[in-house]
Amino acid sequence: MRNKLNLKGNALLVYAIIYGFTQAGEGEYKGSLAYITGATGMSRTTAITTLKDLHENDYITKKTEIKNNITHNKYETNLRVVNTLFGMVEITPPGTKTVPPGTKTVPDTGTKTVPNRDQNNKDKDKDLNINKQFEQFWTVYPSNIKKKNALAAFKKVMKEKGTPPIEELIKIIELWKCTESWKAKNGQFVPHPTTWLNGARWEDTLPANQRPPIKGKTELEKAMGM
Q1: In 158-171, which positions are buried (b, 16+ CB within 10 angstroms) versus exposed (e)?
Q2: Distance from C-alpha of 101 to C-alpha of 92, rounded to nearest angstrom
Q3: CB of 98 closer than 8 Å to CB of 90
Q4: How buried is residue 193: exposed, middle or buried, by Cβ count under 10 Å (0-12/13-18/19+)?
Q5: pTM of whole model > 0.85?
């Protein structure tokens, strides 16, 4: 299974758990993250990241339900992928068409399968918004080195839970720009933007004697209407 699925390590372990529930008559995995972390020994953050990667690569499907203001996620293996890899025949309910991921399954009434354009438009809008936020970050950050690498790092961290919003990141950068360490030798010791992002350096503690308050709004904040 590993060679054909091209999975290994944590991804293979999590996939095996969900596959087991799918094949055991459960239909889908409704368990908690605690079950996955307990069964595999991985951290909660790693389990979340692994589930996200499996879902984005169509190895598993995800359903989200909200009950009593609590979000519940249910996962099951994408049998279409398994059947394709292992040459098995997928059994589908009568009157439906099996279609590629990202499209809607509709009754077989002679109509065409309709692509999920709403989701595609949402993804495009999200990418445009992240690119816009990156340009705000790039304008404020004092070291503009390797923009392409910095953009990739920015997109990655902005999708992770716990990353502050762009407005908060800008304020943190403005504070660090006032410190002696960043001002020394014309900014020689300012981390590269990619390094700063990948290392979550916004969590670094400012020196006690180098925490100058920002008086008023920065020029960028004024332009943004913040």
Answers
A1: beeeebeebeebbb
A2: 15
A3: yes
A4: buried
A5: no
Spatial neighbors of 164 by CB under 8 A, at least 6 apart, are 172, 202
Q: Which pair of tokens denotes residue 209?
A: 């004697």
133-156: burial string, b at 16+ Cβ within 10 Å, e else? bbebbeebbebeeeeeebbebbee
- Per DSSP, the three-state class of 67 is strand
- CB neighbourhood size of 62 (10 A): 14
Helix (H, G, I), strand (E, B) or coil at 96: strand
Q: Cβ contacts of residue 137 below 8 Å, gap of 6+?
A: 154, 166, 169, 170, 173, 193
By CB atoms closer than 10 A (0-12, 13-18, 19+), residue 180 is exposed
Domains, the chain: 2-77 (1.10.10.10), 117-224 (no CATH)
Assigned token pair, 3: 């060679």
DSSP SS3 for 73:
strand
pLDDT in tens, 21-69: 776 555 666 667 788 888 888 898 998 999 898 889 888 888 888 877 7
From the number of C-beta atoms within 10 Å of its C-beta (0-12, 13-18, 19+), residue 29 rates as: buried
Q: What is the largest CA-CA distance in the chain?
A: 73
Strands (E), the chain: 60-67, 70-77
Q: Where are the alpha helices (DSSP H) in 141-213?
A: 147-158, 166-177, 180-183, 193-198
